[in-house]
Amino acid sequence: MSFLSRLLREPLVHFILIGAAVFAVYALVRGGEEARDRIVVTEGRVAQLAQIFTKTWQQPPTKKELRGLIDAYVKEEIYYREAVALGLDRDDTLIRRRMQQKMEFLTEPADDLLKAGDAELEAFLEANREDFRAEPRLAFTQVFVSPENKNEDEPAESRAAKFLAALRSGPGMVSSDLGDPTLLPATVPLSSTKMIARDFGDAFAEALLSLPKDEWSGPVPSPFGLHLVRVTERFDGRDPPLADIRDAVEQKWRTWKREQFQDEVFNSLRAKYDVVLPTLDGDAKQTGSVP
Amino acid sequence: MRMPLLISCLIATLSGSALLAAQQSAAEEGVIQLPTKEGVAKVAPPQFSPYAGRNFPTRVFWGDTHLHTAVSVDAGTMNRIGQEDAYRFARGEEITTTHGLRAKLSRPLDFLVISDHAEMYGLMPQLLNGDREILSNETGKRWHDALTKGDDQKKFDTAMEIVGSLSGDEPPIKSDSAVKNAWQNYTALADKYNDPGVFTALIGYEWTAIGGYNLHRNVIFRGDASVANRTVPFSQYDSKNPEDLWKHLAAVEDKTGAELLAIPHNGNLSNGRMFTVETFDGKPLTKDLASMRAQYEPLVEVTQIKGDGETHPLLSPNDEFADYETWDKSNLNGTEAKTADMLQWEYARQALKNGLLLEKELGINPFKFGMVGSTDSHTSMTAVEEENFFGKHSGVEPEPHRWEHVVIEAPDPNFTVKGWQQAASGYAGVWATENTREAIFDAMKRKETYATTGPRMIVRFFGGFNFTDEDAKTRLPASAGYAKGVPMGGDLTNAPEGKAATFLVAAAKDPYSGNLDRIQIVKGWLNEDGKTEGKVYDVVWSDGRRPTGDGKIPPVGNTVDVESATWSNSIGEPELIAVWEDPDFDPNKRAFYYARVIEIPTPRWTAYEAKRFNIDMPDEVPMTTQERAYTSPIWYTPAG
């Protein structure tokens, strides 16, 4: 792309050209007089200044105060224009960010864009099954064998093996009669593996997934010691239907939709620019349009 | 239906035995009584199945009662994360921090109280968005400009100025409608995230009085938005006097049917004000005020990022674990140096002792409180795991130099608090029957709670007169505990002739953290001469250590490799349990007992930081820590 055409796309150039055009027209209209900017303080503006003052001070401004407000407003306006004319806003990081924020705020999608129909949610759920998958859940009973039990000379492993044999020996065996004291729950109701990991550690929760159901097995190690385990209920991880998780899907869909909308807006702005980047650490020089 | 407070108290006192009888007969008829605010129910008679019919809490729920988001005026100066992300983070989701990092907890919490400052509630987001009404205020305009256009120093100075303004007599920016809107947005959000059985979002706020001296309280509601919306947060502009806060809470309860409690924190920064034995105006404490405090402040937050408040080495010179994450240079904002005589009115253990004396004098113990830990994080993230610590406020979120950056700037540089001094602490453990607002609130009221400095160890503590060693061998210690005694937060009285108080205490480590070093029982008592005393007993410990000459158990050792920020669980034990009988029990003396559980040394957050960013920190920066838990006390009161 030629330098000229690139130049013609540069907003600053637009600004200068427009400025020049305005200047020219203005100069013509004023008939060759020195061109002067105008600041018009409207009645509406004065009313607004007075209103703000009234709200702050709980009384209307006096004439003198109002004059002061107007003078301050004019001063602000003049400095603002002069600063912009000098380009002081261009190299000020905070102003640039503020402008970016305002633009982003303007590109918030309208409410109706964020209303989802069933079809859209279904499609979204389908595309993001992974995020909405219900974790596997298990219920189990456990008998704890402590390697630290000082009343026992026998190693925990062999005690565990004996308990396991006893537990498997028949229905007369009550699991609460076996094992060492512990604060860990002896029976755990249907819980996600995450919740089981919270109390018993990650490796233990993981190991439970491969245990048979309704059968004593183990020992399964945990940071506390050894556990004989009988899994009493098991729900494999599953993909719930939309009806069960509609709120959650809708929440994520809205977030996604908003991001997508903002990306689109940005991309359309971005398409108006050619971005020229310097060479980075041995990269080939990148010029022209970078998508 | 609500009865006036006094009448209901009277009825409760007169008919205590009748109630008990009713409970008993209910249990006999097979109706299972659940625990209430007043206490746990009489344990249901044993069933064939030892797990059936249990009506006591069988699992501990973890939470933070003290978290700030961008809605808090001070946090909002540096933090851009709102209340919704704070909930998402606490329940285990990944969020993006103010500084663009991805952050997630190792495990979800069970409950959260977002307690943004009552003062100018919700003003900050409006200020930053350049709300017209707020910019029309001179201060609002100046703050807005400094925070949106100033450099980092300017922003920090302004943040400090805003924190300072929270202590003024008048709000620099006042807008009742803005506060009400922000409050109602918050309560609606809390209702949305409250998911009974999974995640509890208790509604609350922080009353931030006498900022420099940190007389702050977190106010917590039992009910939902429809209840909380009948009032707005009581702020220090309404009154800086905690007695007025209690009166306000009583009035709200009477007027709206809400149920409320308040949790004070950081007595360690109050320069002798948090637990004084006088009224706010310095007059002798009255019975009325003492009972209001006892009623509305059942808990104290004893450990958090701004230091630990269990006890101080000068108050407990014989306690080798007393000097834990101590902040004792000055008051909160560093405008007044701390002197040794202030300490006795600042720390929980001494306050519990002073409470015994006040109870003798007034008939009411205003300091009959249980313990919780919480974060007081201002980052919207309740992240106080040592290897996942996001700091006190968003000015000291993770980056290579935060350990040496200023957390709180003081006029005297000696009192300025540096990043490394922050404690990665703490959480609240609550023994409730289920994870709901009602069950957790009621457990807090009856003080069945404990504080930890971060790790989620399971701790049980029961007191009675009949515990024997056999009870420590049962597979269900809690069944014996509830059947034969009272849990943490409970009361003992009327020691049977010739019997001493006995305690069943047990702890299991956090599976993600260090083994346990020991369990101790801390006792405080009141002598006839009106002097209080205290003693720490080692009750059960790991590795078969023997007491040395002074009767103390030697240190457990240290496996921490600071350079790699690792440790080994080759010392300590995963679980400890014991029955302990008080060898110095005197049935005629008022006393309290609480358990303290100590972990083996593990890397402190600074060690993870030094490794992660490959930095050398000076010797004054501690690199290891022995995390701990403090249970609520059990009180013994002589009959009559």
Give an overview of the whole structure.
The complex is a heterodimer of chains A (291) and B (640). Chain A is α+β, with helices and mostly antiparallel strands. Chain A has 3 domains: 3-97, no CATH class; 98-124 and 240-291, no CATH class; 134-235, Chitinase A, domain 3 (Roll), CATH 3.10.50.40. Chain A is 51% helix and 11% strand. Chain A contains 11 helices and 4 strands; from the N terminus they run H-H-H-H-H-H-H-E-H-E-H-H-E-E-H. Chain B has a domain at 60-120 and 179-432. Helix content of chain B is 24%, strand content 21%. Chains A and B meet through helix 3, helix 5 and helix 9 of A and helix 6 and strand 20 of B.
The portion of residues forming beta strands of chain B comes to 15-25%
Number of strands of chain B: 28
Order of helices and strands of chain A: HHHHHHHEHEHHEEH
Cα shape of chain B:
globular
Tell me the span between the first and last alpha carbons of chain A.
16 Å
As laid out across the biggest beta sheet of chain A, the strand order is 2-1-4-3
From the alpha carbons, calculate the radius of gyration of chain A and give it in angstroms.
36 Å
Sheet of most strands of chain A = 4 strands, antiparallel
Q: Indicate the percent of residues in helices of chain A.
A: 40-55%
Report the portion of residues of chain A in β strands: 5-15%
Largest interface: A-B, 33 and 38 residues
Give the low-pLDDT segments of chain A. 284-291
Task: Give the tally of β-strands of chain A.
Answer: 4
What is the CATH topology assignment of the largest domain in chain A?
Chitinase A, domain 3
Distance between the termini of chain B: 33 Å
Quickly count the helices of chain B.
15
Overall pLDDT level of chain B: 89
Shape summary of chain A: elongated
Structural class designation of chain B: alpha+beta
Helical/strand content category of chain A: alpha+beta
